[in-house]
Amino acid sequence: MAVIQKYGKKHSPDLVCHKESHPADKVGAPGCQKKWSEHNNNWSRPEARVWTVVLLLGTCLLYCARVAMPICAFSMAEQFNWTKRESGMVLGSFFWGYCFTQVFGGYVSDRVGGEKVLLLSAAAWGSMTAFTPILAHFCSQPILSMTLARFLMGLLQGVHYPSLASLCSQRVVEGERGFLMSTVGSGSYLGTLVIGGAGSLMLDLYGWQSVFYVSGLLSVLWAYCMWKYLLKGEGPIITLESLGSGGSQSKLSKRHWLRLLKQPAVCAVIVTHLCTASTFFTLLSWLPTFFKDTFPDAKGWVFNVIPWLVAIPSSLFSGYLSDHLISQGYDTASVRKLMQFFSMGVSSVFTLLLCGNNTFPWAVAFVSATMGFTTFSHSGVSVNVQDLAPSCAGALFGVMNTFGAFLGVLLVYLSGYLIETTGSWTSVFALITAVNLLGLCTFLAFAEARRLDIDPSKVRHHNIHI
Q1: Burial of 19 (0-12, 13-18, 19+ CB in 10 A)
Q2: Distance between CA 162 and CA 98 in Å, rounded?
Q3: What is the pLDDT along the chain (466 residues), one digit of tens a residue?
Q4: Comparing C-alpha atoms, which of 367, 354, 351, 349 is closest to residue 309?
Q5: Distance between alpha carbon 202 and the CA centroid of its chain, in Å?
Q6: Can you give the C-alpha Rg of the chain in angstroms?
Q7: Fewer C-beta neighbours within 10 Å, C or N terminus of the chain?
Q8: DSSP for residue 43
Q9: What stretches of 36-185 adopt beta strand conformation (E)?
Q10: Are 153 and 275 spatial neighbours (Cβ–Cβ below 8 Å)?
Q11: Under DSSP, is residue 28 helix (H, G, I), strand (E, B) or coil?
Q12: 13 φ, ψ to 5°?
């Protein structure tokens, strides 16, 4: 009779099963068999590589569709005679829709699998993007139709990142999550880069409508290829029965959810993500207009391409650096805090430098540095949620993104109001810096990396008898 326990130095006690010469049906602990089944759900290295590339492309197309409106907002405002405040209303309506499906998307992904939710949502928001110009021209009030279209886009795209978090927590081992999430997260910058470069050219050559047509149809094509070749043509059907009888994931009672949300580390993750997401959304929405207003003779492809060209390798480097530091024995929580310091602290320095009277090259350089350091959050707060609660990472990430999107709505609209009333961009960049510093101080003070989604009193003394 042997009694085996394993206590990780950075995590809550966990149960393991050692393979010996006994037949498989003689290893008598159901908990052990359950543990092995959970590990067998992890992707192999070849599978992980394929999925990483596919999810990278999907996130790239997500942002191609999302940033199409900010890229075209200036031209659409001229055609439809929108004021800055009306443009801000159209741009901000995306985040109102984005708020409503975050938690739901994460919950469903935890139950039935993130890949199914990603597939269905991509087909929907890709179609909506392609139909956006039609809605603009066949409605007597384009401001209303575009506000509604952006709201629906937010609803459909709101499930993407919670689904990614759920899928990663279920299929990727902890030591490789930082690089995978930073790689997939770099798709947002690649998408902004692609739509900033190719979209600016299409905008000049073929009009703003072409940007929506191309990005929307490519997104639908990606969803079809994912269904055909990765899911092997299996129907992405989500039934009420599957929601009610999901696996071991996300089966936390209301009491456990309340206990989880009362933890200071969980509150810190929510507040920090709220701040970093809202400031990123604000920069993403208003930077094209900032360059158009401040440097009207500048080429659009320059300021729509260079910052994101810097952000891609920066995001990949942050993922590699965080995983490397953890593999070298550094405390996981300290690594997450370091990444977030670069993301919100160092980037804020360059954001403040935009308040001065800069030449066009210096403005592009400061924006590029801001975006480059911002990407470090993919290896900070974005992965920290999987450290804290891997069994319900999708739903918890949905909670985080809901708050982030809600504040993003307010900041995008408030930025438009400040620009219109003050005639200066200084107040906008100062506001972004203040919000970033608030989130950074919260994360540095309270962030942890130990599991909080399990009851330590029920796990600490569990034994496996072989």
Answers
A1: exposed
A2: 12
A3: 343 333 344 444 343 333 333 444 433 444 444 443 444 578 887 888 899 999 999 999 999 999 899 889 989 999 999 887 888 889 878 878 888 898 888 888 888 888 889 999 999 999 999 999 999 888 888 999 999 999 999 999 999 999 998 888 888 876 677 788 889 988 988 887 888 888 888 998 999 999 999 999 999 999 999 998 888 877 555 554 445 454 444 455 677 788 888 899 999 999 999 899 889 888 888 888 888 888 888 877 788 788 888 988 998 999 899 989 988 989 999 999 999 999 999 999 999 999 888 899 999 999 999 999 999 998 999 889 888 888 788 888 888 888 887 887 788 888 888 888 888 899 999 999 999 999 999 999 999 988 887 765 554 434 333 3
A4: 367
A5: 27
A6: 23
A7: N
A8: P
A9: none
A10: no
A11: coil
A12: -55, 140
- How many CB atoms lie under 10 A from the CB of residue 58? 23
Q: In terms of Cα–Cα distance, which of 118, 116, 128 is closest to 217?
A: 128
Token pair recorded at residue 157: 């795209």
Q: Give the torsion through C-alpha atoms of 385, 314, 221, 144, to 10 deg.
A: 80
Q: Distance (Å, rounded) from C-alpha 169 to C-alpha 161?
A: 12
